[in-house]
Model the fold of this input.
Amino acid sequence: MSPRARALAAALLLASTASCGAKTGPALPPDLPESLVCPTDPVEARPGVPARVDLRLPEGVTQVAWTAGPGVRVDDRGGPLAWVTAADEGDYTVRASLPERLVDGGAEACDIALHVRARGPVVRCPPTITTEPLREVSVTGVASGDREITSRRWTLDDAPPASARRPLSQDDGAARFTPDVAGEYRLRFTAVDASGESATCTTLVRAVPREGLRVELSWDPPGRSCPDAAGAACDDSDVDLHVLRDPGSGTAWRSDDDCHYANCNASASRALRWGTLGAADDPRLDIDDVRGTAPRT
Done:
């Protein structure tokens, strides 16, 4: 490697000198959006039965003004939770606005669709869940109806581009999900009744790192890496992640000053001791994917 190339490599690795898994970083930031967030799915309800509506409010905002058209009653206390009731079957709209925040001359607002029907399942999903990458979360969807509910199932609707999009482990409406990289995941719950009618709702899972430094390496988008089927065309490339303790002082690759798959792979119970006493500032390779997939973290 030329002197110029060595200097460039050292500069790229300098940001990784502290750790690839230290747990000394700041706590999770508050789960507060920058603007008002309303449910994206229609709120399902039965005629005459109150349905719950939850909002997410920006920091410092506590008061919400609720309005609805004819035929809909809104019970609230001025906050981000309300119960809405429609006497008749049909589609309605409920508006939530923030009088304290003005946008283009009017209060910041969003509309919530209310779907009231006498037949079919009525479903409810958990609100937004905040966790860490690689920490499992549990989600449970609730479904009820006039007919027997024959199917309750969760699917992964959306994930960060670097995610391997691994399927959920689930049983009759209760699911366990582990986000593999930082970012937002959207999980969809679908219930089907004995007449074949269905209803869905979604839950947002936010994976927020807590490490002082977290490095995520990915390659081969989902679907391009080698599947289990024999003879399938695939890209079986393998990329390794290395974090050097101090690249500016001539740290040797594949030594104990280099965190990589052979010496600090957490899944193989391998560890390095860097920095002060204790494991808080030690590097850790959480995922070592060797099948031509991603990610490594």
Residues 1-29 have pLDDT under 50 and may be disordered. The chain has one helix and 18 strands.
